[in-house]
Amino acid sequence: MGKETPAIHTVSELKSSERSTGEAFRAVLLLRKIASRTAKNNNPFLLVEAGDRTGSFHFTCFNDNPVYAALKTAAEGSPVRLQGQVEYYQNRFSPRVTDIETLNEEDLEREGMLERLIAGPPEDADALMEELFDFIARIRHDALRATVEAVFAEISPVFKTTPAAVSMHHAYRGGLLEHTVHMARAGRALLPLYPEVHADLALSGILVHDAGKTVEYEGALAARRGRSGILQGHVVLGYRMVRKAGMKARLDPELLERLEHIVLSHQGELEWGAAAMAATPEAVFVSMVDNLDARMGMVQQALRETPEGEAFSDYLAGLKAPVLVTPPAGGDAAGR
Questions:
Q1: What is the SS3 assignment for 275?
Q2: Kindly report the CA angle at 148 between 249 and 292, in degrees rounded to 5?
Q3: Distance between CA atoms of 45 and 38, rounded to whole angstroms?
Q4: What is the mean pLDDT of residues 144-166?
C-alpha cells in the first residue's frame, strides 16, 4: 500500500501545537512577500511570507534548495501549492519547503481553495458599508458632506474590497472599509472630549484619509502597490481626489486646505510617508485616531489568528513586540 498523501492544511492548523518537527505537510497559500537577502557567507537566500485567511508565517529558502529558482521568479500575490516539513526557528513555525507549484484562480476554484485564501473583516461588509454612508450623512456642513460624497461616488465600487495595507494592519480584503468605519466610531466617541476640534472637518478627514489606497493597491488575491502606488503613493493620490471633490462641491478654500492637510499629514511622521506633519487640531486628531486603530487592528488580528493554547502571538513588526493573547484574570474585556 502506497504512502498516504498529507492533507492540505491551513496556516492555523500548521501552527497548532499538534504539529511535530519533521512532519510532512501540504498547503495552498499566497506568497505575500518575497525578499532577497545575503547571508554572512555571501550566499543569497529568500525570506518569504506565505499565508491564507487564517494567518501567515515566514520561512527562509537558501540557494541550494531545489525550490529557490521557482521562488526567486514568483510574483508576490501568487497562489501556490507548497510541500514541506515542519520546522521551528526560535520557537516560531518556520518550515522547510521542499516543493512548490504555482496555481491560478481557475485551479483554486476547481479545488475549492479560493475562499480559504482570501481573508476579510470579521464584520459583515454590507453592514459596514451601510454604516459608512450613515457617517457621511451625519456631516452637517453641506459642502464638506458634498465633498466626501463626491470622493465616494468615485471610489465606492472598489472601496468595499480594498485592503488597508499590504502587510501591517487590516491587510486583507475589505480591511480599508473596516479600518475607516472603526476610526469613525472612535472619532465619534472621542470628539466630545476635544471641543477645539471642528467635528465635521475631523469626521470628513477620517472618512477620506485613505481614499488613495483604492488606486495605490492592486491584485485580486493579495495586495501589492501598482504603478501609481509606487510613483505617487496613497497620500498624494488621496490629496488629488479630495482636492478635485472639494472644488466640485465649492468647498470654502480654507476648509478645503484644512481637509487636504488632514490627508497629507495623517501618516503621522515624515518617515512613515506623511507629506507634512499634522499642524491643525483636526489633523492631529485624525492622525492619532488612525494610529490607534491601526495598532489595535494588529492586536485584533493577532487575537483572531494565534492558535489556541499559545500565550503569545508571533512578533508583530508594527508593534515591535508579540501580543499576549490570553485574557486577564478576574474580568471580561468590557471590565465588568
A1: coil
A2: 145
A3: 6
A4: 89
